[in-house]
Amino acid sequence: MMIRAYDDIIDMLHVEQFTQIKEPVIIQGVSTDSRNINQGSLFIPLVGENFDGHLFVEEAFNKGAAASLWQKDHESPPDHVPLIFVDDTLLALQELAKQYMKQVEARVIAITGSNGKTTTKDMIAAILSTTYKVHKTEGNFNNQIGLPLTLLQMKEDTQFAVLEMGMSGRGEIDLLSKLAEPDIAIITNIGEAHLLQLGSREEIAKAKLEIINGLKQDGLFIYPGDEPLLENISELGYNLPPSTKRIRFGKKESNEIYPTFIKMEQDGVYFGLNQSPPKGYYIPLIGRHNVMNAIAAIAVSELLAIKKEDIIKGLKHLKVSSMRTQKIRTNSGFVIINDAYNSSPNALKAAIEMLEELEGYHHKMIVLGDMLELGENERELHQDIGRRLDPHKIDYVFTYGDLAEEVAFEAQNHYLPDHVKSFKNKEKLLKELLTIVTEKDVILIKGSRGMKLEDIVDELKNR
């Protein structure tokens, strides 16, 4: 974590108004949550529509904070504690992170995309950790607050920071990229997530391309070469300097790096690349789409001269964030594939393909929740999934939510009546699942974050 003297923080933020103190104060880390204050930390009271951290400054000091920021437009600051006065506490948090990054020597790898950015981040961190000291984004700390907090939690001797950059609209990744100034920028894919906010895949592509706005001039840009929207980024209003290197990955042989074979196993995937060792690579994740994530990670690793055996080792021992194609064997014997963190049409189609290719199970079942934030065509996009489901490859379909009901309506046209069921109540869905599932079955569970389908996963494990 960042460890600096109180005076250093004042210099980093370029402020003129602060509390004069007699004894030296050492800041150890930063917190924006008064409930989780570490001894000696700097408290940053953020202000939102429904909250104001200034109300908890006293509490933060009582719990061990060494100093706090204070936004100038707020009255009655406490007069007995070290305060640093700023115009905007959020901007100050971001500026502090930016200045800290200028003082440490860590190189930055930034990742965005409609799907797969968390898994790709985990893969890159796993490989690089075989050789370097690595710090990565944890949880969902990938926005205008989470990313600077991630940077400030980083140890000074870190050699690589692997950062996930999320967004819901234009300008957000631009801010994050310019804050972190990546040496390597990666786009995993362009999907339909955030159609509600952006309106089209072209606008989504423009928003994702903001990641190159902070890319260093001699940096590396890695992107999916099979995506037509990224064939000529100048048409989308983006230009890279000639010194920027590019690597395209994907299924086509026109890419610099592409798979030569993919072999699905029950607990993972073997695959080879056009420039890989003869035996190829293995990832302990199921699904062809995860091979694409791994290819992006390998492209980074090879550029950084990681040994082939270390790339293989890093991927083999990969630990991914929860609820991303997480395979769980229950005490009853049946298998759950927990992919409930989020959902979009592209991601869901990839998950369906993954389930279809699995072998060795008696019945294959799928539980689908609403895909949210898809805009005016949301019902048609759900109906398209229902038409995509194949009763010869997936035996039972269960849906939860108003939009997911559209999936069920379409699937009922080609499934047996008792093999497709729609629910608005999780407990009723769970009860129906438990009457059908046997010890030799597999259940894929996927839905948008707001549907909280991990509740069903937890109940299935417990029962």
CATH class (first level) name of the largest domain: Alpha Beta
What's the gyration radius in Å? 24 Å
Strand % is 15-25%
Assembly type of the chains comes to single chain
Task: List the SSEs and their pairings.
Elements (H helix, E strand, L loop, with lengths): L2 E3 H8 L12 E3 L1 E2 L10 E2 L13 H6 L4 E5 L11 E4 L2 H15 L3 E6 L4 H12 L5 E3 L9 H7 L7 E5 L7 H9 L3 E4 L7 H4 L2 H9 L10 E5 L20 E5 L9 E6 L4 E5 L7 E3 L4 H16 L4 H9 L9 E4 L5 E4 L6 H13 L6 E6 L8 H11 L7 E5 L3 H8 L8 E4 L2 H11 L5 E5 L7 H9 L1
Parallel strand pairs: 3-4, 4-5, 5-6, 7-9, 7-10, 8-9, 10-11, 11-12, 17-21, 18-19, 18-21, 19-20
Antiparallel strand pairs: 1-2, 13-14, 14-15, 16-17
Helix pairs in contact: 3-5, 4-9, 4-10, 12-13, 14-15
